[in-house]
Amino acid sequence: MQGTALEVHDELVREMMRVLGDEVISRGQRSLELVQALLITAFWNKSTRKDQQASCYQVVQLAVDMGVDLGIAGSSWQPSPAAYFARVEDTTSPEARRTWLACYIALSTSSIDMRRPNTVPWDHHHEECLLYLEQAGETSDLLLCQIVRITRLVQEISSQLHLFHLATYVDGNDYDTHLTIRRLKSEVDIWTAQIPHFLATSQILKVLRHVAMVRLYEVVLHTRTNRSSFAAPFIPGRISVKDFPAPDHIIPPLRTALEALVGHCHAVVDTATNMDPALVLALPTFSFAPTVLYSLYVLITALAASTGPGNTYGQCLAKDCFKIEQCTLKLRMLTSGMKLLDPTMSCWTTRFFDATGWLEEWYNDYATIIQRYETFLVI
């Protein structure tokens, strides 16, 4: 609906949600096509300028629950009593398997963004669906399968580093933590090595790989009290200026991890901003644009943890290594290209990337404050 007049856009969104609500909630209909429609609504979510619609996270849960009721989730998941006789005839068809893996991506994205445990974790049926599509699916299924594989790895990273359990603190300045990080990094490297050669240059997979690494190293920015601040929405100022890690004695693996963290944040920005604006607009808003915002948020958090008063990470990261000005320039150029294709900003992806302007504004304000502080110290 790029370029659609705002009034027409809003009416189309309202009608789409009305039809889905009528079919799913009012009439209680269940079908593979409805699961797919719900997933499309969530992945490429739209909203009107004034009214409130169901959130994409609610729509994902509806899609997953309907998938379970239809029987495409495998034998480990029983349908609800009301839907016991609503199973689809062929629960293991390529389309059913494809749809269930898409449900996994959607639910995992929700889980990772909100820092909540995945309610339908990876199981044997997921693995069976994945292997089937890799061996007997269509060519386009191979990219889907690679996205599923890296999504599963990010889930594993989040689980092993307790990102879903906010009461459990993982110390980024502890050798045991870095043993876990090293093992998980090895798993990401193994995934990278097995990507089919014709997908090895995929910019989408490159972004997802670097985002996985950002999530892996994120723990070095955690304190006992700031961990919940790394959940969506990824906006500046969520972390108190006094709530950054500042160990007196930084162990060598932490130094390496901090450098790697900044490098992967830059790689996310570099890869995304080198993509064709038309491709970025076509990618699912729900699972792509927020990953770039997340990486920017982590980069800014690392900057504050390294340059703020009393912060000790400055021993490892020089102020000029963050390259904020270069990042903002690249993002502005990509956003300009997207606005040419989507002048009414009807796509949430355009709005998300346009909102990255906060990075430049926040950085300018922060740099001014730090400059004043350093001047005061000299005086």
From TrEMBL:
Residues 28-119 form the Xylanolytic transcriptional activator regulatory domain. The keyword Cytoplasm does not apply. InterPro entries: prtT, XnlR_reg_dom. It is found in: Nucleus. Keywords: DNA-binding, Nucleus, Transcription, Transcription regulation. Its main location: nucleus. GO terms for cellular component: nucleus. Pfam families: Fungal_trans (PF04082). GO terms for biological process: DNA-templated transcription. GO terms for molecular function: DNA-binding transcription factor activity, RNA polymerase II-specific; transcription cis-regulatory region binding; zinc ion binding. PANTHER family: FINGER DOMAIN PROTEIN, PUTATIVE-RELATED (PTHR31845), TRANSCRIPTION FACTOR PBCR-RELATED (PTHR31845:SF39). This is Xylanolytic transcriptional activator regulatory domain-containing protein. It comes from Aureobasidium mustum.
